[in-house]
Automatic annotation (TrEMBL):
One of its GO terms (cellular component) is cytoplasm. InterPro entries: Indigdn_synthA-like, PfkB_dom, PsuG, Ribokinase-like. It holds the Pfam family Indigoidine_A. Keywords: Glycosidase, Hydrolase, Lyase, Manganese, Metal-binding. It comes from the Eukaryota. It comes from Acanthisitta chloris (rifleman). GO terms for biological process: phosphate-containing compound metabolic process; small molecule metabolic process. This is Carbohydrate kinase PfkB domain-containing protein. Residues 319-516 form the Carbohydrate kinase PfkB domain. GO terms for molecular function: hydrolase activity, acting on glycosyl bonds; metal ion binding; pseudouridylate synthase activity.
């Protein structure tokens, strides 16, 4: 992930994903490069951060440098990369442009909810016989990203494309004054979109609702080409029929059909379709950026408690009780770290951790949506923490005035050995029995309760007592050698179902219980 994109994501600023197949296969060099640069500039000028997705020498990039963008634009051997192509292209170290499908996958994994494209793929004409259906449609059915495009490409069977999107459970909405589903170059396709949003605020509200339901499917916002640059439907249709005939005669099939058709239609319309193509791409970038900004504002308002929380329709959640940390890792460049107040060359990076947060993160990525009980300060780290954890249920986390979010700073040698560690962890003492007991009903219904050693002893004892009374499964993560023994200072440990100590933590527990060590293992 490009540093500018990563920084924006951490700070909760709006980011717009952009595809690169239009660069590698949609237009000739150098027009493709100037188009891509202009699209990124439009995104920036409308308040968002562009993240063009591409494959460079076997590595997925979310956000490209200008040199990488020019490399893909001028490449003669770039591969068109959809879901099915990723394993081969990456394993062979190839470079390529990502389709709508390929870009959606990368955007979702990076945490970007809005993606701007020219037009999606769909069911090809005569697709009922050839079964030539774009992977874009199935991707929209299984990846929760909002795609802003000028509908489906005119060369497709738009009626069947809309039917297929319905089958895949994709929410489709036309953007603007009309419910007419646009046909890429043309504003009219002869088909109505199922739904209609008038502006970016309504679009953002729709996307926010879709993401909140956790349906794991995408949203398609269909934006018509600007009136001034829209091509005549009849002119385009005549060109499509001629191009289709030539494609059939030449035996062109599969993923080669769309690039051939677009190039041929440009020739047959004397460049008018290309003018429309550029206009709709620039317009989509503007509209998509405004939607991303509006969506970001909604999400920030919810995190600050100014919007109602989404209705919870899910089964009982696991509950995780533990710490949230902001970690600063400083790694020296040279083997020897100089003292005496001198500045050492090195790399410093910020990450988000905390044992409780890490457990909740992992459970969230496994689809379990745990409730996290923790505490953070209302300080300069708050917004970044909440955004980084946007995929997690943070609704119950304490946000405390006058307190510092837990931070940890580690200085490590060039060989990776810890030189010194400093921690400000006092806020973990606020994860009290009184606070946790407010969620007794959730705890008693939870299929699993996880608790880490950062939590005060009285809180651990309360949870263990509750577990005994209600037969709850409790997992204890000891955190470190000094905290590992907390449940073992009384009979609380008998309520634990799982524990995950390392060897040092297990030694400490063993010592607390007064047990002898197995032969061959000694206390350090």
């Amino acid at each position: 992930i490009h540093p500018s994109v990563q920084e924006a994501l951490m700070e909760g600023r709006p980011v717009v994903a952009l595809e690169s197949t239009i660069v590698t296969h949609g237009m000739a060099y150098p027009l493709n490069l100037s188009m891509a640069r202009k699209v990124e500039e439009i995104v920036r000028s409308n308040g968002a951060v562009p993240a063009t997705v591409g494959i460079v020498k076997g590595q997925i990039h979310v956000g490209l440098t200008d040199e990488e963008l020019e490399f893909l634009a001028s490449s003669k051997n770039a591969v068109k990369v959809s879901r099915r192509d990723y394993p081969f292209v990456l394993s062979q170290g190839l470079s390529g442009g990502t389709t709508v499908s390929g870009t959606m996958i990368a955007a979702h994994k990076a945490g970007i909810p809005v993606f701007v494209s020219g037009g999606i793929g769909g069911v090809h004409r005569e697709g009922e016989n050839t079964l030539d259906v774009s992977a874009d449609l199935t991707e929209l059915g299984r990846t929760p990203v909002a795609v802003v495009s000028a509908g489906a490409k005119s060369i497709l069977d738009i009626g069947r494309t809309l039917e297929y999107l319905e089958t895949q459970g994709v929410c489709v909405a036309a953007f603007g004054e009309s419910r007419e589903f646009p046909a890429f170059f043309s504003r009219q396709s002869g088909f109505q979109a199922p739904y209609h949003v008038r502006d970016e605020e309504e679009a953002a509200k729709l996307i926010d609702s879709a993401l909140g339901l956790g349906l794991s499917s995408g949203v398609l916002i269909a934006v018509p080409c600007p009136k001034e640059q829209a091509a005549s439907g009849q002119v385009i249709e005549e060109a499509i029929q001629l191009a289709l005939s030539e494609a059939r005669a030449k035996g062109i099939t599969g993923k080669e059909v769309t690039p051939f058709m677009l190039q041929k239609i440009t020739e047959l319309t004397a460049g008018k379709s290309l003018d429309s193509n550029l206009a709709l791409i620039y317009n989509n970038a503007k509209v998509g950026s405004c939607i991303a900004v509006a969506l970001s504002k909604r999400q920030k308002a919810r995190r600050k408690g100014n919007l109602p929380q989404r209705e919870n329709m899910s089964p009982p959640q696991p509950v995780v009780i533990g710490g949230i940390n902001v970690d600063f890792i400083a790694k020296a460049q040279n083997p020897d770290i100089l003292g005496g107040g001198q500045t050492n060359a090195g790399r410093v990076r910020r990450t988000f951790g905390g044992v409780g947060r890490n457990l909740a993160d992992c459970l969230s990525r496994l689809g379990q949506t745990p409730l996290l009980l923790s505490a953070v300060g209302k300080d300069e780290h708050l917004e970044s923490v909440l955004h980084y954890c946007h995929h997690m249920d943070m609704s119950a986390v304490l946000q405390l005035e006058g307190k510092n979010t837990a931070t940890y700073c580690a200085v490590i040698t060039s060989a990776g050995e810890l030189s010194i560690g400093l921690g400000d962890m006092d806020i973990h003492h606020q994860i009290t029995e009184q606070y946790v007991s407010q969620f007794k009903d959730k705890l008693c219904q939870a299929p699993l309760v996880c608790i880490d050693g950062n939590v005060p002893l009285s809180t651990i004892q309360y949870v263990c007592q509750l577990a005994r009374e209600h037969h709850l499964a409790v997992c204890y993560e000891p955190t470190d050698e000094n905290k590992a023994s907390k449940p073992f200072l009384s009979d609380s440990w008998k309520a634990l179902t799982y524990i995950s100590p390392n060897l040092q933590e297990l030694r400490a527990i063993n010592r607390t219980l007064g047990n002898t060590l197995p032969a061959g293992i000694e206390y350090s």
